[in-house]
Amino acid sequence: MADCLFCKIISGEIPSTKVYEDEFVYAFKDINPLAPVHILVIPKEHISGASEITAENSGVVSKIFEAAAKIAKEQGIAGEGFRIVTNCGENGCQSVHHLHFHILGGRKLEVTMG
Ligand code: 5GP
Ligand code: ZN
Question: Cα of 11 to ligand 1 centre, how many Å?
């Protein structure tokens, strides 16, 4: 999608620190980390957010979670644990409208669901 920040990161037009890539998924370090490990995992296909997941495009979500498990192991946070979060829409405080899953780990996270 022409005017999408994360589509530009996937294409390389905007630089990022890549931690994982396959045919379907791209993952990179968050520019403003909220934990010692803070990685964003995104589909290469533009999907604007969790509310736009459908029967046609939902396969990529399993690819994202497969990638997240690999990344957590590679980053050394699988054993102690981590969190995967996706924000959707205004009330969810989504700031970039390309579906993304935050992987947060490397410290004890707050007990909060909002
Ligand atoms: P959201 O608030 O939509 O759930 O998450 C968007 C995330 O993207 C934020 O954590 C923010 O720090 C990150 N982000 C925004 N712009 C950039 C960028 O240009 N590069 C990288 N690596 N992360 C970004
Ligand atoms: Zn996009």
Answer: 16
